[in-house]
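User: We ran a pulldown and think these components assemble together. Before we commit to crystallization trials, I'd like a predicted model of the whole complex to look at. Sequences follow.
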Amino acid sequence: MKRRGTIYIVSAPSGAGKSTLCRELLKVYPDITYSISHTTRAPREGEVPGVDYHFISREGFESRIAQGLMAEWAEVHGNYYGTSLETLEASVSKGVDVLLDIDVQGARQMCAAVPSCVTLFIMPPSEAELRARLEKRGTDSRETIEKRMENAAGEMAQRSFYAHVIVNDELNEAVAVLVAVVKECREGGIS
Ligand code: 5GP
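Assistant: Here's a predicted model for the assembly, 191 residues in total across the polymer chains.
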């Protein structure tokens, strides 16, 4: 029987540098497919539909949930986010490894359904640094930043759920640790 692809789950409070880390990981392992989530949030400047996210309406998302089309989903910062079951299964059934950038609620759902998922949590070096990064990004309103800070504390409190916790203080070091974890998993060492 064909080997099923491994599902790598990366979670982090927004502003911890997760997108950059995921991009760097995919440069090292271009055969890993990045799972493009569905969301009801509005695109940020520079985000491309179908590349960063599939941007859909609340009605559209709720209909997808009702039809059982989502492998996992969650409401984060007042918007729905989720992973398409069909797209995920299309990769995994072909033996292709998939990277999911999802929140803690989604990670728990995925692991309940697929216990072999490899879970990684990215921590910012400190709360102050996280706030500074969110403010520097300049894409979110003050209210959104406060919501994200609150959510971050809740997410960080659940990091022990993850098999691997990486502190993103110095980017190159964090990338090296992330790559090392994936390398070990691929060589059959850890999960
Ligand atoms: P952002 O709005 O900053 O792109 O993402 C906000 C949060 O939603 C992040 O924690 C991100 O990991 C999470 N997220 C993105 N896509 C998904 C998804 O498909 N499922 C779940 N559960 N969370 C997601």
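Residues 38 and 144 are 20 Å apart (CA to CA). That may be worth checking against your pulldown data before setting up trials.

User: Thanks, that helps.
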